[in-house]
Structures are given as C-alpha cells and as structure tokens.
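Q: Hi! First time doing this. I have a protein sequence and I read that you can turn it into a structure. Is that right? Here it is:
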Amino acid sequence: MELQQIYQQLVEQGLCHSGLQFSQQYLGKYKSYYRVLNASNAKPSTNALTNVKLHQYFIQ
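A: Yes, that's right. Below is the predicted 3D structure, encoded as structure tokens:
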C-alpha cells in the first residue's frame, strides 16, 4: 500500500487531519516531510515506513 493511500485511509477514519499531523505523528518525521515527499516524488525512508506500519498495526 502506498503512503498516499495510508494517509487517505487515516483521514477518512478521522484519525488524521493534515499532512503535518501525518508527518509528525504517523511517520515520525518533521512537519513538512509528507509535503516534501509529494512535491518531489521521493520515496519515504525505511524508518518512516516502519513507523506508519506500526501505527496501522495498533489501529486495526
């Protein structure tokens, strides 16, 4: 699952309200991290993917 899909699911579930929150709370990165990834089409770090997957595991 892509990061954008995970973000959309969290927004739809009311668990995340902004890219800033997603960056900090779910990816464990600085507040503009998700915005920079989208703007540059860069791939997320392994650490960020691990963090978001851990959050998904505990949410479900």
